[in-house]
Design brief:
single chain; alpha+beta; five-stranded antiparallel β-sheet; four-stranded antiparallel β-sheet; 13 helices; 19% strand
Length: 435
């Protein structure tokens, strides 16, 4: 079945429902390689972080730094786009993914850029490294020094391509820093990251990054995979003139990684929308930190705009259907499902406000009877856990005909106890202040 965000159905009411479902919870997926971060590129605000500072293998995300140094050389005048780079025997010997360059041949700088971005060619990475650093070992030292300059304090590079090396490590946060700096420092070259094919020796070479075609608004960056790392991706997307960057590391498959990335982007845009509305949910501190940017990222430069307003509307409708369907179907076992680590993170940071009684919200519906029925089922499950639970259906003041299913009149501690119990029983919930 294709991802739901490619099957647009639903209404604006559903989008509001999806905003509430943003805080659904679940258990962390058993994946020791998983890490992720979501950043608002304009403000640097971290919208989500899970294992963001844990040591991971970058795989071919490494090539973003190889490209960063290549872009620097272009801007400094050390290279030109049409300049031929010589291919050594050592470079030509690198394993796939590769362009199968012949020793003694050359490759133009611009084609090398395309090959690194689109094909993730390891032979090309070494060719660039030797042109800029004399050897890939010395170039790796240059990469690590540049990483320190950019604030990537937990990254060490040992090669320019990301092939296995136990000493070559990074974090999701550092990869997000690198991706942001590539966009900020070289906007004139960022367009290469949106390309999905290039021509070489009479052949059309296609790439691996399916998100560029499948996720509306996605306009670049890089995929990566080695067995030790799992499937990694750094993705940037623009919608409503706001750019969000995600880094996901450790995917079980390319498909599950992409689905999870799409889910993180969806949730990030919902959060930004809630912030603009001043919604109470936006007061939740999801991560407690902010990416350090040299200055605010431009919202629309660089960007690849959606083809039409209808496409943007389709995304909103698709998201509504996707979020709504999560209440009606059993979760799958792929990352991005109800086992999604983002949901556990959000659960630990439930929105709260000072004063007043407390409530546990278990869902939101366009039908009051459905909301009441779900709240009653939740109350039944809590009969032996928390005393004095009362069912209530609250119509959203900012969204008429949107009914929130709640258990109310609880003390704060009881509300958290109740929600923990419901989660253990497989029911989504969140603790809120009930006025």
């Amino acid at each position: 079945m294709p991802p739901a965000y490619r099957n647009p159905v639903g209404t604006l009411l559903g989008v509001l429902f999806g905003c509430l479902m943003l805080l659904s919870v679940g258990q962390v997926h058993a994946n020791p390689r998983y890490a992720a971060i979501v950043v608002d590129a304009e403000s640097g605000a971290v919208l989500h972080a899970a294992n963001a500072d844990a040591t991971r293998y970058p795989a071919s995300l490494t090539k973003m730094m190889t490209l960063y140094l290549l872009f620097e050389a272009l801007e400094d005048g050390g290279l030109t786009l049409d300049q031929p780079l010589p291919v050594s025997t050592y470079a030509a010997s690198k394993p796939a993914s590769k362009l199968y360059l012949k020793a003694g041949s050359t490759i133009p700088v611009e084609t090398a850029i395309e090959a690194l971005v689109i094909k993730s060619a390891n032979d090309v990475a070494v060719t660039v490294a030797e042109a800029l650093g004399g050897s890939d070992e010395h170039f790796a030292s240059m990469m690590t020094r540049k990483a320190r300059e950019l604030g990537m304090s937990d990254t060490v590079f040992r090669n320019p391509h990301g092939l296995p090396d136990a000493r070559q490590v990074t974090t999701a946060r550092d990869m997000a820093t690198l991706a942001l700096r590539v966009m900020k420092d070289f906007p004139q070259h960022y367009h290469y990251f949106s390309r999905t094919r290039f021509h070489w020796n009479g052949k059309t070479i296609t790439g691996h990054n399916r998100l560029l075609d499948d996720y509306p608004g996605a306009d670049g960056l890089k995929t990566g995979f080695i067995r030790a790392s799992g499937f990694n991706v750094a993705t940037s997307a623009v919608r409503h003139d706001r750019r969000i960057l995600t880094v996901v590391m450790g995917g079980f498959t390319a498909a599950s990684r992409d689905a999870h990335t799409a889910d993180l982007l969806d949730r990030g845009y919902l959060r930004l929308a809630m912030q603009r509305r001043g919604d109470w949910v936006a007061q939740a501190d999801l991560s407690g930190d902010r990416m350090a940017l040299p200055e605010p990222m431009p919202a629309t430069q660089p960007t690849r705009q959606l083809a039409s307003a209808e496409a943007d509307s389709s995304w909103s409708q698709a998201l509504a259907a996707r979020e709504a369907s999560s209440m009606l179907t059993e979760p799958d076992t792929e990352m991005g499902s109800a086992d999604d680590p983002i949901q556990a993170l959000l659960a630990r940071n439930d929105a709260t406000s000072s004063g007043g009684a407390w409530a546990v919200q278990v869902g939101a519906f366009s039908n009051a009877d459905q909301a009441r029925s779900l709240a009653a089922r939740a109350a039944d499950r809590l009969a032996s856990v928390v005393q004095g639970v009362r069912v209530a259906v609250a119509e959203a003041q900012d969204a008429p005909q949107l009914f929130r299913a709640r258990l109310v009149d609880l003390q704060e501690g009881d509300a958290h106890t109740a929600c923990r119990s419901l989660r253990q029983q497989g029911m989504d919930c969140m603790v809120v202040a009930h006025n």
